[in-house]
């Protein structure tokens, strides 16, 4: 009897393990096949002189239009091309695209991380898609003095076999202008459960897009209005400009391994609709910090909860890199919007141009009316004791 139950436990453990490994075979988190463009084409990497550089075949990718493998040190019009990472990347010419077929799990949300740099001063934009989903990523704003930035975009898999497509929407007079892309990775996202004492989903911001261990620039999260399909589960980026998802390996983070750095003042807003009971007292608390990236102070955020708004300046205790802030509000409906943006438009003190700003982490919304209920119960108990007293005395 005991033996058979032991055996069935083993069987179910094996089934679980098998299911686990079977599911990881589908789409592993991390770099997609040749996502860093460092695998040499069959005839070797093209020579460094432009025009001869047209790729004859980029391993693991399909191309359409002028797609060029570019190398570190390669020059164009006297300027050295920016290669985000490693020795090689691809440049997409006018209306050109690269694509790769991926195996994913239908119904799940995935986030794609990629690095992009623009080559000319013109307005450059990239269409990232997993048809039918797509988003145009505007590369005009330089968030970083390095000239490139990692971005994340998310999609919900409508089937098990999908195609990830990057297309240059530009139509420049100079066909050698066009965005450079590198380091393409994918991550299957999960939505963390809402904790019992906190109405905010993913309030600790620990679940988010893939981040490369050796990329020190964080990941930009561009506009995303669909809270169901977000690279930062639970959260929306409401603004035209992006916010930066940062990691504790390269930045100062108040809690855990990840947080959000707000950029571009009012132009970078994150928000969430949290579940509330109408007409109840709630408190929003969060950690407000600095990212340790030499950001020019002062730092401050505007925090919103329902009809309350408050600006909070970063004034930590002597040795701390963050402080806890709170905002009391009364819910008006069964959903309440909470949101944050940076009050100032900050840049780094060392290069005077990379965008930076205050850090938000560990966001909680909790029912703070419980204090009154406590008094209510205490009142009941006292009242009962009084009647008992009266009864026995009488
Ligand atoms: C390449 O793109 C053009 C439009 O830009 C399209 O008409 C053509 O079908 C594409 N070719 C392939 C092989 O996808
Ligand atoms: C981006 O590409 C997708 C399919 O690849 C297409 O459906 C969508 O219309 C494109 N968006 C723009 C703005 O061109
Ligand atoms: C990270 O660094 C390792 C070794 O230093 C290198 O092989 C790899 O290509 C790098 N990857 C990224 C995405 O930076
Ligand atoms: C701040 O750090 C210094 C040196 O590490 C220490 O001497 C001091 O007591 C700390 N102050 C507080 C308030 O923790
Ligand atoms: C919020 O309310 C609590 C008591 O419920 C109080 O201790 C706290 O100071 C209030 N916070 C603000 C910012 O008013």
From TrEMBL:
Signal peptide from the UniProt entry: 1-27
Transmembrane segments annotated in the record for this chain: 374-393
Taxonomic superkingdom: Eukaryota
Keywords from the named record: Cell wall, Glycoprotein, Membrane, Secreted, Signal, Transmembrane, Transmembrane helix
Record lineage: Eukaryota, Viridiplantae, Streptophyta, Embryophyta, Tracheophyta
UniProt keyword Protein transport present: no
InterPro entries: DGR2-like_dom, Galactose-bd-like_sf, Pectin_Meth_Modulator
Localization in the cell: Secreted, Cell wall
Main location: secreted
Pfam families xrefs: DUF642
Protein's name in the database: DUF642 domain-containing protein
Gene expressing this chain: LOC115992916
An example Gene Ontology CC term for this record: plasma membrane
Glycosyltransferase keyword on record: no
